[in-house]
Amino acid sequence: MKNVTDSFVSLGRWPSAGSFGFNIDILATNPINLSVVLGVLIFFGKGVLNDLLDNRKQRILSTIRNSEELRRGAIEQLERARARLRKVEMEADEYRMNGYSEIEREKANLINATSDSLEQLENYKNETLHFEQQRAINQVRQQVFQQVLQGALGTLNSCLNSELHFRTINANIGILGAMEEITD
């Protein structure tokens, strides 16, 4: 083993003209070492790198396909939602128009019912006024009749004496007797 290490140490002392040896100058050997390492990596790592890149490419393509499918699904859902929205808006407009027409019908019915009620109230008012007028007229008639009767009785009582009274009674009895004979 000592021979092998001696040979490496002795190689470091040999002049570099035409011989093979280790150059310990880091600046001169670095690009060469890097190119050798890169060449070895490219040669041996080419398959591994290609496999990694192919796997990455397949994952990216798969992700793109999934994204496209999701986008198409989202577009279809959006179109269905827009169609439903249009349908609902049309139904809402229809309900709104039907509601307005229903409101107008109810309004007209309410106006007609109110008009009928007002007409009935007017008729009841007129009947009540007519009834009250008739009652007032009857009361006035009764009062006038009472006053006339009282006046007539007063006049009769003041003008009648017992002889006139006796003659009136006899005349009435005679009229009643004549009427009785006619009916028999």
From TrEMBL:
Q: Coiled coil located at which positions?
A: 64-127
Provide the alphabetized UniProt keywords: ATP synthesis, CF(0), Chloroplast, Coiled coil, Hydrogen ion transport, Ion transport, Membrane, Plastid, Thylakoid, Transmembrane, Transmembrane helix, Transport
Q: Name one GO cellular component term.
A: proton-transporting ATP synthase complex
Record keywords: Zinc included? no
Q: Which family does it belong to?
A: Belongs to the ATPase B chain family.
> PANTHER family this protein is in?
ATP SYNTHASE SUBUNIT B, CHLOROPLASTIC
Assembly notes: F-type ATPases have 2 components, F(1) - the catalytic core - and F(0) - the membrane proton channel. F(1) has five subunits: alpha(3), beta(3), gamma(1), delta(1), epsilon(1). F(0) has four main subunits: a(1), b(1), b'(1) and c(10-14). The alpha and beta chains form an alternating ring which encloses part of the gamma chain. F(1) is attached to F(0) by a central stalk formed by the gamma and epsilon chains, while a peripheral stalk is formed by the delta, b and b' chains.
Q: What does this protein do?
A: F(1)F(0) ATP synthase produces ATP from ADP in the presence of a proton or sodium gradient. F-type ATPases consist of two structural domains, F(1) containing the extramembraneous catalytic core and F(0) containing the membrane proton channel, linked together by a central stalk and a peripheral stalk. During catalysis, ATP synthesis in the catalytic domain of F(1) is coupled via a rotary mechanism of the central stalk subunits to proton translocation. Component of the F(0) channel, it forms part of the peripheral stalk, linking F(1) to F(0).
What this protein is called in its record is ATP synthase subunit b, chloroplastic
Q: Which organism is it from?
A: Beschorneria septentrionalis
